[in-house]
Structure formats: C-alpha cells, structure tokens
Amino acid sequence: MTEAQATPQTGKRVLLAKPRGYCAGVDRAVQTVEEALKLYGAPIYVRKQIVHNKHVVQTLEAQGAIFVEENEEVPEGATVIFSAHGVAPEVYEQARVRSLKAIDATCPLVTKVHHEARRFAAEDYDILLIGHEGHEEVIGTAGEAPAHIQLVDGPEDVENVTVRDPNKVVWLSQTTLSVDETLETVARLKKRLPLLQSPPSDDICYATSNRQHVVKEIAAECDVVLVVGSRNSSNSVRLVEVALDAGARAGYLVDFAHEIDDAWLAGATTVGLTSGASVPEELVQQVLAHLAERGFTDVEEITTADERLTFSLPQELKRDMKAAAAAARG
Predict the structure, then answer these.
(1) Are the C-beta atoms of 176 and 230 separated by less than 8 Å?
(2) Does the predicted TM-score (pTM) go above 0.85?
C-alpha cells in the first residue's frame, strides 16, 4: 500500500483489527442469560460477572439479571447461572444444598482445562497451573484438584515451584493469557523440569491467540493502539501489553469512547483499534465514530483469521426451552 492510498483525506487512519470482540464462549454465555430471562422471567441470578465487561453486565442488569458474588446471596430454589469463567466443584454442591436451579455457562474451552486437571490429578501428577492469582478461571480450575495444583503466576514465579516427582509433572494454563509470556514461563519451567509434560492441546483459547496475533501484525505501524475492554478482563489487558511489546508507541484500554483522552491522539497519524473477547461490536463502532470526528476517517480492516466456531447453549437450558416450545404448541 502506498502512502497516498493509506491517507487519502486527512493523513489520519485507523487500522482495525480482525478478529476482535466476542468469542464463541462469550456469545454463548450472554445468550444463556438472555434466553433464561425470556424463559423463566426476571429476576435471574448470575454468580459473578457473566463475562468481564462493564457494558454487558449493565445491559443484562437492565433486562432483569441480578449479579451476585456467591450462591448464599441467591434465594433458595431460584435460578442461578454460573459465569463463562467456570467454577470449582464446591460451588455446584453449594447450589444443590440451597435447591438452586443451576445453569452452567462455563466456556467449553475452560471446561476442557477442568477435564485435564481432573484426569492428571487422578493419575497423581503434580499440575502446574500457569495463570493469574485470584482470577475466577484460575480459582475454578484449581478447585478441581486442589491437592495436586500449584499456581505459577508468570515467568518470575518459576523459582518458587516444588514438585514431588519431576517425572510426573504437567503444565496447564488459564485460557486468556499472553501467548508469548506463557511460552516463556513454560520454557523456564522446562529448564528446571526437563520431563515436564504439556497439555494434550493448547489451553490458551483460539480467540485469545487470534486477537493477540492480529495486534502484533499492526502494532509497529501504530502511534497509538486502543483496546476496547474492561480492566478486569484478562484478555483485554493482555492486548495492550502485546501491542506495546510488538512496537506500538502507546497503548490504552477503554470501556467506552468517551474515555479516550484527546492528548493520546495528539500528533498521531495511525491508530490501531481492537477489542477484547467479551466486548460487543457496538462499542468498537462508537470508538470509530469518535475517531472519525477527530479526523481519523480512513479505516482499513486488517484480517488474520476467520473465526466460525460456535457453541450450543447449556444442556439444561436447551432442555427447558424445548419443553416450553412443545407446551406452547400443545
């Protein structure tokens, strides 16, 4: 592309990353809450944020979802939805004791990591879980086999690892990490534990990897990279880090267009734009409109992957939807 082609009007352009925004697991989780509200009526209780996005949570609250921290806050016998990040087995047990109707919106790719944790624990492996301390997904996975799992929070944490038998150790990871940082952590672990086994398939989800990959492609051309996403969204935070590591002069995380500081754009000719995996496209479009008002009218979408994966709704919800449809026909 020539410079004249890239900047035909104002000399200011936006490189719009694709893939961006909703992944299949987030789409499924949000749909689960929406369909449950239609089927059972409000209120529907949701344990933790269904996905880590301020706008999505506010929108669902307006429709009648009530977000709680723990099952104890849900009235006995009510419906509760577990978030996309997954929960430990004890959470299911708490729901059973309180006679809650539990619908599990855990992302199937997180469920896969839970299965791996249970399988390796059953074979008496030490499991090194690479992830961020306190993140809901890490808490849920660790809860599958607490006696066998120890957290490794980044490359610097490798020195703290101790295992019973260096011949029987495997690593698993949170699904929303930086791909490069995880590979660095694994490389350091393998220096200490040469027989360390890897998960049967990559634990970092396709959407996280794809969004990081396209940001790496555009970052070096960008004066500023804007990532639309919430601060408690691990994959969104990672996108800012990836952009800076890949050569962007600056990078910022915003929930909404109005949070963009004009000072960030001063002197910039190329702005990169992407969004985390729990961000609806309307928020990206609002940022594009905001940038256009400031002269960034030339938008080029850079595509590095075509995502077509979809996940079906949770079985317990599908079953009730089917029964309701049959009753309506009856």
Answers:
(1) no
(2) yes
